[in-house]
Amino acid sequence: MRRAGRVVAEVLDLIEAELRPGVSTADLDALAEAHIRASGGTPSFMGYPGLNPHRPFPASVCISIDDEIVHGIPGRRTVRDGQIVSVDAGAILDGWHGDAARTFYVGQPPAEVVMGKGSGIDSVNMWLTDVGMQVSEEDAMKVLQATKAYSLKNKKMLSKAEFRDLARKTLGKMQQAAE
Description:
Elements: H1 2-18, H2 25-38, E1 42-43, E2 61-65, E3 84-93, E4 96-105, H3 128-134, H4 137-154, H5 160-178
Antiparallel strand pairs: 1-3, 2-3, 3-4
């Protein structure tokens, strides 16, 4: 399992090194597949049947850009400066599966990203665990309940941007109520 995880970490490092404006998501996928296979592994996602077994997943990694939620399919589209790119990679090696994801900012990120007044979440370079420590379980449940209510009311899933905006509004209302 450790070897499979190491290959996945290496794939994410390689993609991070190549991630720049103008590179296509297909090129990043080809880089990932080549490394996984050169390491003696098999890309976990390629050929995965998903919801429609007649249309298996066609790529080695999932690449989502900006407000795409997850499991974006690599292709001809190219990455632009200022975009947020999430990459999910998986490899099977010696029967063990490794899977990890990272999110990258293309180009120079803004000096500070403020997610909510007084939230304590103010840096694009924070670890997820640091972010989690700033949000109480009760606050997180309120955000998720608001998200579920919105999705049910509007009969659609939220994009990343819509979720972020709804979470900010919900946390803002909670902070106002606390004051």
